[in-house]
């Protein structure tokens, strides 16, 4: 590439003073100018020209809540997202096991909301298929799994085992474990799976990030890493092998998470930084781990799980905040969200600096908590695509009355709350175009509750920059700002259809990653 590149297309800057333009001039890693093509051509006659024609040129799209390591590992295990029955799950796992004849049988992506059974699922068929090899097959939300007897035995979760704090061992009418383990119980089994090697971790991350880049992403917020993943990111950054920017959160529920915090905020490069932490107030709605004030509509004896207690979140969160880390706390149920807001109020009352604390998901809220969110300066990191993927079970779990304040991206945005968008991949597709469609069309039962196209793009660009403290250099196309761009082959601003707009190119810091 020449020192200067002039990109022609339908430029949507997300910059209020000039929201539309005909071209962008890139010099080095920055935007040099935005304006009409002829004017910029005259300004820089020697610039290399990339012509997107009638395609859209956008600020780089960023996923504000994702799990690249999990995606990379899921791509290397049995792909269960296409299963429509337990028989499909077993058949797919058996095919994978045939290709991988040693060690654990691993899989990811089954979604019982798409087929009959619900939490009446059991692992007896998996026990029959794998009587000696341990098997762990994760649900799509990553908060529940089917574990056969051999796998549960490694974790000590056989017939007489009690539910661990923050987890559930689902039992049948006789009180015997079915093999379905939720949250902390699942983690006990997962901890027995041999850790990947350094080379495998690097492969998982690069595979996932290259795939994300191919879908138009120029950045991700990695919502929970351990020390080994941090070391892998740093190695990849030093070797200039990161295709996009990564803003990481240290997972304080994992061994070594607090050690990362005590090492201090350490930006490795312009492609990788660790300055946030992740905590968990509850689990997921699909596996009934989301913590609610009132019981589940389809399980009246159960109201969800407190994955981490108030004391745990206070101890870990307050120390992280004192050390200058941003707090990002997973909260899906209304009770979990209220507990996190209580925590943020307590930390502020103690005089601890609390800069842009985040609610990761903010999926089900009480109306009274919206004002608290705004008053505390909380960023809501939300996933519009979940209103689509959860539509099959959300009303069943919550009943109709609680849906009014669920998945309410527009209501929060219109209330003045900073709302940043992501996917939670691999829980949902990492494709930001699907998320943009969900944000504008409402998704699921919220079909009349969509944002404007400009608001949706802002959620995937500048709002994520704000959520990660880069709002003065990322998320807009304006002179002096970093040249992170997503270029689509056609302009979805004309018809509102992002999903079918092919990705032409992604640019990160003035470096083109691909141009088709």
Please tell me about this protein's structure.
This protein has 516 residues and is an alpha/beta fold. It has three domains: 1-60 and 475-516, Urease, subunit C, domain 1 (Roll); 70-190, Diaminopimelate Epimerase, Chain A, domain 1; 197-471, Alpha-Beta Barrel (TIM Barrel), CATH 3.20.20.140. It is 32% helix and 25% strand. It is built from 19 helices and 21 strands. It has helices spanning 37-43, 68-75, 86-99, 124-129, 149-154, 184-190, 198-214, 227-238, 257-262, 310-322, 334-349, 367-375, 386-389, 394-398, 400-403, 409-414, 432-441, 453-460, 462-467, and strands at 4-12, 20-27, 30-35, 48-59, 61-66, 78-79, 105-110, 135-139, 144-147, 167-171, 177-183, 217-225, 245-251, 272-280, 326-331, 358-361, 379-382, 419-421, 485-488, 503-508, 511-515. The strands form three sheets. An eight-stranded parallel β-sheet has the order 5-12-13-14-15-16-17-18. The chain has a seven-stranded mixed β-sheet with strand order 3-2-1-4-19-20-21, with helices on one face. The chain has a six-stranded mixed β-sheet with strand order 6-7-8-9-11-10. α2 packs across α7 (198-214). The protein is globular. The mean pLDDT is 94.
């Amino acid at each position: 590439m020449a020192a200067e590149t002039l990109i022609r297309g339908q430029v949507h800057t997300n910059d209020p003073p000039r929201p539309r333009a005909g071209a962008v001039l890139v010099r080095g890693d920055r935007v040099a100018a935005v304006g009409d093509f002829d004017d910029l051509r005259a300004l820089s006659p020697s610039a290399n020209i990339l012509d997107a024609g009638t395609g859209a040129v956008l600020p780089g799209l960023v996923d504000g809540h994702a799990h690249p390591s999990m995606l990379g590992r899921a791509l290397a295990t049995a792909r269960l997202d296409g299963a429509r029955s337990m028989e499909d799950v077993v058949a797919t796992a058996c095919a994978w096991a045939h290709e991988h004849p040693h060690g654990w049988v691993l899989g990811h992506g089954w979604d019982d909301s798409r087929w009959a059974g619900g939490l009446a699922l059991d692992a007896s068929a998996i026990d029959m298929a794998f009587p000696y090899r341990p098997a762990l097959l994760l649900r799509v939300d990553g908060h529940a799994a089917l574990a056969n007897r051999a796998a549960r035995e490694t974790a000590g979760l056989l017939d007489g085992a009690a539910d661990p704090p923050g987890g559930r061992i689902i039992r049948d009418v006789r009180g015997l474990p079915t093999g379905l383990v939720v949250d902390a119980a699942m983690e006990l089994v997962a901890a027995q799976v041999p850790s990947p090697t350094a080379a495998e971790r690097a492969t998982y991350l690069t595979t996932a990030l290259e795939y994300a880049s191919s879908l138009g992403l120029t950045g991700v917020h990695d919502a929970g890493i351990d020390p080994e993943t941090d070391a892998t990111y740093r190695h990849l950054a030093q070797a200039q092998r990161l295709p996009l920017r990564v803003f990481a959160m240290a997972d304080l529920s994992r061994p070594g998470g607090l050690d990362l915090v005590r090492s201090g905020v350490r930006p490795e490069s312009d492609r990788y930084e660790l300055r946030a932490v992740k905590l968990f107030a509850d689990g997921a709605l699909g596996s009934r781990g989301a913590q609610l004030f009132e019981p589940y509509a389809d399980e009246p004896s159960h109201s969800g799980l407190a994955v981490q207690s108030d004391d745990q979140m206070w101890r870990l969160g307050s120390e992280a905040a004192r050390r200058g880390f941003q707090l990002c706390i997973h909260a899906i149920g209304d009770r979990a969200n209220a507990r996190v807001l209580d925590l943020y109020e307590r930390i502020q009352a103690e005089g601890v600096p609390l800069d842009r604390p985040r609610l990761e998901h903010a999926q089900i809220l009480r109306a009274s908590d919206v004002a608290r969110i705004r008053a505390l300066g909380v960023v809501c990191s939300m996933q519009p695509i979940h209103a689509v993927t959860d539509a099959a079970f959300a009303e069943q779990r919550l009943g109709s009355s609680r849906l009014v304040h669920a998945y309410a991206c527009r209501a929060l945005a219109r209330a003045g709350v900073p709302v940043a968008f992501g996917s939670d991949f691999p829980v949902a597709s990492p494709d930001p175009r699907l998320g943009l469609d969900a944000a504008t069309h409402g998704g699921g039962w919220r079909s009349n509750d969509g944002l404007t196209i400009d608001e949706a793009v802002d959620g995937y660009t500048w709002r994520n920059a704000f959520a990660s403290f880069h709002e003065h250099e990322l998320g807009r196309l304006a002179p002096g700002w970093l040249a992170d761009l997503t270029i689509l082959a056609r302009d979805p601003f004309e018809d509102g259809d992002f999903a079918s707009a092919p990705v032409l190119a992604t640019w990160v810091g003035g470096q083109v990653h691909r141009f088709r």
